Amino acid sequence: MENAAVLVSTPFQLLSAIAITEQLHEYTYDLYILGNFTGYKNLAEKVKETGIFENVKAYEIGQIRKKTASSPKIVTHLEEIQKYIMYDKTAETVLVPNKKYDAIFFATAHSFVEIIFYAKKN
């Protein structure tokens, strides 16, 4: 069975992610909730209990971006580019360890997060 990552940033996207798992049975799914809404951590815990997803991780989007920030100053264009170049290192700290993904499903506008997921795609 192949591995797939699903990224969601709203409760509606989570419902869509669950629908994907019901329709595409050739994957085992990991869910990543990018917390752009109140109660996302509690929701992640409830989803874990269902067993629909193999792994469930919840992050506030700022947590992921901070992992590559060099200091609390104004970010220059060069520093922003460096974040994208270092996506592999960020992926190691954010994603399920030692796992590669054959498919990635997302409907988020956070391009930096999307890039780090591609670091783990086969």
Contiguous uncertain segments of 5+ residues: none
Largest sheet properties = 4 strands, parallel
Summed up, the helix count is: 6
Provide the helix percentage. 40-55%
Strand content: 15-25%
Q: What is the C-alpha radius of gyration, as a whole number of Å?
A: 15 Å
Helix and strand run: EHEHEHHHEH
CA(first)-CA(last) distance: 14 Å
Globally, the shape reads globular
Write structural notes for this entry.
With 122 residues, this protein is of the alpha/beta class. The protein is 45% helix and 20% strand. It contains 6 helices and 4 strands. It has helices at residues 11-23, 40-50, 61-66, 77-85, 87-94, 111-118, and strands at residues 2-8, 27-34, 55-59, 103-106. The model has no long low-confidence stretch (mean pLDDT 76).
Protein traits:
single chain, globular, 4 strands, four-stranded parallel β-sheet, alpha/beta
Question: What does this entry show, briefly?
Answer:
The chain has helices at residues 11-23, 40-50, 61-66, 77-85, 87-94, 111-118; strands at 2-8, 27-34, 55-59, 103-106.
